[in-house]
Structure formats: structure tokens, C-alpha cells
Design brief:
The protein starts with a helix and ends in a 7-residue tail after the last helix. Helix 1 crosses helix 2. The protein has one domain. The protein contains 14 helices and no strands. With 331 residues, it is mainly alpha-helical.
């Protein structure tokens, strides 16, 4: 079955490339970029199937069992803005593109370190999983999620980074589309860190693509306005919508000595180990109690994080510069 799916995808990829992309390259004298265009066509298709899955599977969950029923929000809370972010990120394949750009220089550096006698590590080889790629990918997924947990902690801890990340938290009407509502620089920094780590520990390109796709799909689900309680054995293993919603809660998601709670991207074990887990959201949903309002506390005092894509990008940059040149940049 899996082989048939892979074969069908390869045929669709080839047909799209030969029927649409290749003629466009020829028309605009871009044949020199044929390899890059072939790869990007594959990433574009993967993003398209992600969007299709979101629309056919996750969106109906929001309609059937919403966590909250809401009237229209302010302009900056419009779901259409988040949909635009999502289409841009998924079809543009930001994370995979950054990995591809960094692959050559990072691998050259890695080889140079070996020549200089500095040991490097391919995790799957060290664990004897070279010929079991699925298990190797699962190990890499766990490692990269651990790194992502600490990236997320830093996004909330350092004021300059929070200035960018706040664009994501400024949405007060959470939906499956909210995941990609991010400042582009925020995403670039995160994606670059994850790509460099992945390349240094030996993640193969195909494994990285699989990790990115699974992570993005699950993040879309955890941001969804979904009121279906997850069984404890699932919510303790993978971040649930209720668990992550509390992370977005007003006066919860960016408060206290830890600068928030529930930072895990996929596996809440990191929050449990480092004592940032808060299960109140899951408990309230299970008891059918009102859920927390989402957003940032200063929005209640009229602070504006932008009404559209361009204004949000500008606000993030402006606030980052203010944080960098303040006397207390680390918060």
C-alpha cells in the first residue's frame, strides 16, 4: 500500500513537472535551475496534500465539535489572515527549503570537523538503525522535538525573540490555521536551528521531509478549535489541542517565572520533565467547563499587533528592535 502511494505520488510529481514547470522554465530561460525546480515541485505537492488533509480531516472536527463558539473578531483576528500564512508556508515549503539551502555548507563543515579530528555523530548509525530508516526517523523526530522545546522556551524567554513570536500569540480566535501565523524572521531562525542540528546528527533529506510533514500536521491539529477531549493515554503522549490552547491563554501563555506553560511542540514529556506542564486545559475540556480566552494580556489594553500580514511583519520587526536596544534585552 505504501509503495503504491509513493509510486502514485512520483507519477503525479513527474507529470506536474513535465507538463507545467518545465515549459515555464524554458519560457523564462531558467533551465539552469532544473534540479532546484524539480525539488521545489515535490515540496509544493507535499504542501498541497497537507492543505487538503487539513481541509478534509481537521476542519470538519472544528465544525462538528468546536471548543468554543465565537462571533466575528477584530480585523487582526480574522481567520483569512492565518489561512494566507498557512498557504504561504505549506506551498512555499519554508522548513524544507531552509534545510536544502543549508545542506551543502553544513555538510562541508561537518566533513571538515572530521578532518580536524573533531568527532561527529550520525545517530542512526550509532544506534544500529542505518538499515531501519523508519526507526531512525522516529529517533530523529524525538531529538528534534527536544531541540524545538528549547527553541520555544527561548522564544518566550528572550524579549527580542518574544517580540517576533508574539505575532503568533496575538490571534484570539484559534483555529487549525493559527499554527503558521508567525513572523517570517521567527520562522527563519527556528527553521535554521532545526536544519543545522538535523544535518549535524545525520538526518537524511527524506527523513527530514517526513518529520516536517508530521510535525506540521500535528501542530495544525493542536491549534484547532476542537472540543473533543483526548484520552489521557494520547494527551500524555502527544500534545492535545486543549494542552496547547492553555499555552495560548491570556495571562498564562507568557507569564510567571517560566514565561508560560506547555511549550512542547509534539511530545509533552519535555514539559513534564522540565516542570512546565499544565493540564488544566485538558481537565476543563473533559468536565465541559469554559476554556481560557486566548491572546496576549496587553491586547486587553488596546495594544495592536497588526491588522494584516504586512502590518504584523512590521510590528514584529519594530518591537524586536525596541527590545534589542532596551536595557533589559533578556527579560
Amino acid at each position: 500500500m505504501i509503495d503504491q502511494i509513493v509510486e502514485a505520488f512520483a507519477e503525479l510529481h513527474a507529470a506536474l513537472f513535465e507538463g507545467v514547470v518545465l515549459p515555464m522554465l524554458a519560457a523564462f530561460d531558467g533551465i539552469a535551475y532544473i534540479d532546484e525546480a524539480f525539488d521545489f515541485t515535490e515540496w509544493f505537492l507535499i504542501g498541497g496534500f497537507e492543505l487538503l488533509f487539513m481541509a478534509l480531516v481537521i476542519l470538519p472536527l472544528e465544525r462538528i465539535a468546536p471548543a468554543e463558539r465565537r462571533g466575528p473578531g477584530g480585523r487582526g483576528d480574522r481567520v483569512g489572515i492565518d489561512i494566507a500564512y498557512t498557504v504561504l508556508h505549506r506551498l512555499g515549503a519554508f522548513s524544507i527549503f531552509v534545510f536544502a539551502v543549508l545542506e551543502t555548507p553544513v555538510l562541508k563543515l561537518r566533513d571538515s570537523l572530521g578532518v580536524w579530528g573533531i568527532p561527529t555523530l550520525e545517530v542512526d548509525a550509532a544506534l544500529g538503525l542505518t538499515y531501519i530508516p523508519l526507526f531512525g526517523a522516529l529517533v530523529y523526530l524525538l531529538i528534534l522535538d527536544f531541540v524545538d522545546y528549547w527553541i520555544h522556551r527561548a522564544q518566550h524567554r528572550w524579549n527580542w525573540w518574544w517580540a517576533l513570536h508574539a505575532i503568533h500569540h496575538s490571534q484570539r480566535r484559534m483555529t487549525l490555521w493559527t499554527d503558521n501565523r508567525n513572523h517570517l524572521l521567527d520562522d527563519l531562525i527556528r527553521d535554521a536551528i532545526l536544519a543545522v542540528v538535523a544535518l549535524f546528527i545525520g538526518v537524511a533529506p527524506a527523513q527530514f521531509v517526513g518529520i516536517v510533514v508530521f510535525t506540521r500536521i500535528w501542530q495544525s491539529l493542536q491549534h484547532a478549535n476542537c472540543g473533543i477531549p483526548f484520552p489521557a493515554f494520547i494527551s500524555r503522549a502527544l500534545v492535545s489541542p486543549a494542552f496547547h490552547r492553555l499555552h495560548h491563554g491570556v495571562s498564562i501563555g507568557h507569564e510567571g517565572p517560566q514565561r508560560g506553560v506547555n511549550f512542547a511542540v509534539l511530545f509533552p514529556i519535555w514539559d513534564m520533565v522540565f516542570r512546565t506542564a499544565d493540564w488544566r486545559g485538558d481537565h476543563r475540556l473533559a468536565r465541559h467547563e469554559p476554556l481560557e480566552a486566548t491572546g496576549i494580556r496587553d491586547q486587553e489594553q488596546g495594544v495592536d499587533y497588526g491588522q494584516g500580514f504586512l502590518s504584523q511583519q512590521w510590528v514584529g520587526l519594530r518591537n524586536m528592535m525596541r527590545a534589542l536596544f532596551s536595557r533589559n534585552p533578556a527579560g
